Amino acid sequence: MSEPTGATRRRGPFKVGDQVQLTDPKGRHYTFTLEAGKNYHTHKGAFPHDELIGAPEGTVVRTTGNVPYLALRPLLPDYVLSMPRGAAVIYPKDAGQILAMADIFAGARVVEAGVGSGALSTYLLRAVGDTGTLASYERRQDFADIARGNVERYFGGPHPAWKLTVGDLQDNLVETDVDRVILDMLAPWECLDVAAKALVPGGLVCCYVATTTQMSRTVEALREHGAYTEPQAWETMVRTWHLEGLAVRPDHRMIGHTGFLLTARRMADGVEPPLRQRRPAKGAYGEDFDNDKPTQLSLAERAAARAAAKAATPVIEQD
Ligand SMILES: C[S@@+](CC[C@H](N)C(=O)[O-])C[C@H]1O[C@@H](n2cnc3c(N)ncnc32)[C@H](O)[C@@H]1O
User: Which residues does the annotated region (Disordered) include (predicted)?
Assistant: First the structure.
């Protein structure tokens, strides 16, 4: 049985063309590609690539200045954080959430926009595998070029499941019978209609947004659209730990914020999502709520919510 694309580059002794991640005595990382006959230069001397070619991962090489460097292949989380960037990449903690919570499976038909630097595309391609499809849309040619370079360097060439289109998703999406649509862009609400047309019943849309205002607008647009179930939203925080003897505690610094994730499922055609039973919280659709922005609540329901909020507001008698 042939190996899935890229798998042979992830195991066995180091080969020409492999990515190597060096760790110096201070824990800093450096990444390079192995080439026969070349030298790798550091501030503390150099060593020949040939010393690593044929050696197992986890080897320690010493520079001419006798400084030890640990050599391993970068993991995908290492690779995406060190590769060239056009746009900001999705952090590994969020990519992991997307793979798990958007239920990306081997053989799935997935659409993604935008592509940015191609970090999420690489995770998605590994998850759908050679038998799935990933159709990625990116509006900027320069970012698409960077993403293609990053993805192909990771897999050692083109991935058979990947199609990259330059253009806005909402104007170019041609796929149908799609299982999952993943949106990482400023205005995902502009793409919800084309996503609904592409998705199979039971399919899932997943949006990654950086701010609460984007999250709110996306949620209300999903509700208003009518083809989606009630959306769910969450964020994740990952706290790394300092581990030294009895000094075992959370690290002082952490990545405090990356973004929010939202998911909703595609209803069957012609089926309306059941109205929410819960009453909206007082003030949720108050005077400040922009009625031009979409919401699943009818105008009458919004008026009732406002009246209820007003009735519950204590009246302060003035002399
Ligand atoms: C934050 S980046 C995506 C990062 C990417 N997920 C990664 O992990 O590397 C957002 C990208 O969306 C693109 N974009 C924004 N709106 C778009 C649209 N409607 N269709 C296609 N691409 C879009 C932008 O040009 C930008 O490159």
Answer: 272-293
Q: What is the domain partition of the chain in residue ranges?
A: 15-74, 78-265, 279-311
What is the full DSSP assignment across 136-158?
EEES-HHHHHHHHHHHHHHHTS-
Q: Pick from 111, 139, 260 the residue to mutate for probing ligand 1's pocket: most ligand atoms within 8 Å of its CB.
A: 139
Which tens digits make up the pLDDT trace of 245-268?
Answer: 999 999 999 999 999 999 999 999
Cβ(9)–Cβ(156) below 8 Å: yes
Per CATH, the number for 78-265 is 3.40.50.150
Gap from CA of 216 to ligand 1 centroid (Å): 19
- For residue 198, give the 3-state DSSP assignment: helix
Q: Is the CB of 172 under 6 A from ligand 1?
A: no
Q: Structurally, what CATH architecture does the domain formed by 15-74 represent?
A: Roll (3.10)
